[in-house]
Automatic annotation (TrEMBL):
<dbReference type="InterPro" id="IPR011256">
    <property type="entry name" value="Reg_factor_effector_dom_sf"/>
</dbReference>
<dbReference type="InterPro" id="IPR006917">
    <property type="entry name" value="SOUL_heme-bd"/>
</dbReference>
<protein>
    <submittedName>
        <fullName>Uncharacterized protein</fullName>
    </submittedName>
</protein>
<dbReference type="Pfam" id="PF04832">
    <property type="entry name" value="SOUL"/>
</dbReference>
Amino acid sequence: MSLQSTTHADQQAFPQTEVGATELKTIPASRMIVSECKDHYFSENNGLFRPLFRYISRNDIAMTTPVEAEMMPGRMYFYIGADASHRELSSTDEVKVVDLPERLVASIGVRGGYTRENFNAARKQLQAWLNSHPTHKADGEARGVFWNGPYVPWFLKRFEVHLPVIERSQNAD
C-alpha cells in the first residue's frame, strides 16, 4: 500500500453535506469495519483509529471517506470501498466487520476541529432544525461524520453530525 493511499481517500461513501447546510439524506447500505471502547469517543485520542488503519493496511483496502463515530460508548467506523466490498473479510479481536442497512438521517455540515465541543454545538443546532421540521423525528443517537485526515488544519476540516430520523407518521408519538 503506497503512502498516498494511506493518507488520502479517493472514494466517498456518499456526498458531503455542504458547510452551513442542513438536510435530510439517505445513507446507502454499507459494509464497514468498527473498533470500539467503553469510554466516550473523544477520550480515545486516536485509540480507535489505529486498529482500523492496521486492518485496512493488512488487508490492502483503500481508505474511504468519511469516518463515522458513535459517541458513547465510543465507536469508530471505516467504510469498505468498492475495491474490497465483495471480498471475504473476517472480524478480529480489535475490529468487527458489520453491514449496515440504508439509513435516513438529518445532517448538518460544519467546518472546524474535531472536538467534543464542536460536535455538541452542531448536534444542538441539528436538533433545533429537526424540531422545526414536523414531518420527521429523531430515531437514535447522533453520530459524528469526519471527512478529513489528521494532517488537515483544524480550520479547514469538514465534518457532519447525523441524527437518524423517521417520518412521524411511521411511529405515533
